[in-house]
Amino acid sequence: MLEVRNLVFHPLENGLEISIIENISFTVEQGEMLVITGPNGGGKSTVARLLMGIETPDSGEILLDGVDITGWSIAQRANAGIGFAFQQPPRFKGMTVKRLLSIAAGCELPESRCCDYLSAVGLCAREYLDREVDNTLSGGEMKRLEIATVLARPHKLCIFDEPEAGIDLWSFSMLVDQFRRLHAEKKQSLILISHQEKIIQMADRIMVIRDGRVAALGPGDEVLPQLLGGEKDCGCTANSPCRA
User: What angle do CA 33, 180, 194 make, to 5 degrees?
Assistant: First the structure.
């Protein structure tokens, strides 16, 4: 289980302290899917980076299975079972797709297993195995490959930062099906940061972050109607919840 207590993050910008995250607390139970949504610039991705150790909070605690990991490095958190899929995945010139998947899995993967992971995210597997993870891949291809690397290794908690960004509708449908399968297995907890209604609808619980604070947190069937109704000032509509 993940437990987040009173996270605060005030980085310096041009020598001035700015408020990004203010006193955010929440939990994610074993096997639960929490979807984080809300207006752009509200702090959603920053929360994900704090959980992964990419950023360091000014105060607050992050606990995984009761162990305080607030001061742990990215590598320590990864070894403890936290997986992370970036909104804008990094590229690695000179590294093949097959090699990247093997590194993500922690062992040398046979070609057939690599193909399974690539097919799960909508990539024509054998066309990609020997390609380099460089600028020859489009943004959508990189996003799907990034998610495949997370799938290649079992985790206690997987964090996906806007997995729908930059991919076509067909691939998006495949990703939604993959998330449904992961959720149904209940082997790992999932945090998805998303604006997409199809992803939000899958959530056990929904957390809305606005202006660095938790604006709403509760069961999906309670919070989703608020989003679809366009409550408050975030500009949500039935066709585009929380895209403000």
Answer: 55
